[in-house]
Amino acid sequence: MAMKRNGKSPASSESDESVMFFRDVSLGPHETRLRFRLIHFWEAQNPVKKTLIGLEMLLIDEQGTVIQGFIPPGRIKKYLPEMKRGSVYELINFYGSKNKPMYRVADHIATVSFAWNSELSVLHDIPIPFDEDRFRMHSYEDFEANCDLKGDLYDVLGHMKLVDGQALTERPTIDEAKLATTRHIMVHVQSHEGPVMKLYLWDQAATDFCKKFKSYENTPTVLLVTAVNTKRLGGNLALSSMSPTRVFMDYDVQPTIDYFAWLSSNPEIAKQVSAEDAFFECTATIDDVVHGSAWYYIACTGCHSKATKGANSLICTNPRCVKDTTAGVAQYRAKISVYDSSEQGFFVLLGDAGFQLTGRHASELVSSYFEANKDKGPDHEVPVPEALISIVGQTHKFCVKVTDHNFSGNTRAITVTKILPPETSSPTKGSVDNAIAATSMEAVQTGSEVCGPSKSRGDSADEESKRTFDSVDPEKVKRARCEK
């Protein structure tokens, strides 16, 4: 058997012409034949200069080996008219270039680059079977390990929990006009019983998702997205689509079919939640400030976690705080009941959210009370101030946070992280209902990117508020009637 350039022996021969398998492709020029199925191709752009780098491809041979392909920009017009996803081709002559270190879509060390003498032709009668696709599914742990490394682009397979902040209990509505402006859709996806991950689909991937989602008669639940980049946004893992990203749902490919079957045989999994904190908007009217529990707490001046009494000073309860002792400062931790036209719920105001509603800091209100009541000792609990009581009856758009804690026990108090300007009209129907559904139906809600965590307090303060309000029975607070 004749040896070809680079010392590679032919994998098979027909009429003295060699056919090389992808596993034998090495770096350097090759005067031989390749046979492969074209899985996918896309334009590679320079993100800074906005110029075309070339046409990239994902190829699979008859042995199921996947390799990346590349056509320089000056040669694209020559080959593009013959290129069709899913077709099988023969390529004569190519150059084995080194696989790029960033944003790889294949494990192979080499890339099949079309050279000056490359010849591409379509194979119509194919006696040898070729796999239609090949995926590189990875787990949450793998995504965490590769976060921000800009190396391999892996595929994610799971079931959708939310589409643009909407649970799948009712078919989500995708606003195409909004999509044209924002250019992205955010999906919360959970792989088997792992943590819920935020998946951002951009540009073409978002458009493909929208078209495919709407094409299903029944609401699709299973999602496979290829070639996602892992990033850390706000300290949390996030997946982001890239140029080679493709989108598949319930019955599109074998992995989604298999996952759909697994999910159908494990219906309780769809109801489980293991998620990082998530945020969404809710428009509601304030019914009352809940009495019977403190509306503030004494916080560490450094991290705003709860401070407790020590022998001679206050001690921060946050083990990660650099302050062993602290002077202490009053921070909001007020529970309010809210309602819209159909439902009632409970929100907890912490830090800046309380200040945005009242216009006064909790420390200022506490200090004013003790200045006016000098006979009260430092352990006296300050009653709910008029500044808080005056917010009853106001309608606001709340940015609220839902955590894993909201899905355990009877907890229904949801943390408010930000207040947007008051609505001029009546509350939107179903806004509070959606918030309550997030806890009762075990679904994490998310929404506008403006709903970020409050920067005025630490997570320990939030945990303290959860412990405080766990024992409150939400049915004991009477909902006010709306006047027509």
Automatic annotation (TrEMBL):
This is Replication factor A C-terminal domain-containing protein. Residues 443-484 are annotated as: Disordered. Residues 279-422 form the Replication factor A C-terminal domain. The lineage of its organism: Eukaryota, Viridiplantae, Streptophyta, Embryophyta, Tracheophyta. PANTHER family: OS03G0429900 PROTEIN. InterPro entries: NA-bd_OB-fold, Rep_factor-A_C. Coiled coil: none annotated. Residues 456-484 have a biased composition (Basic and acidic residues). It comes from the Eukaryota.
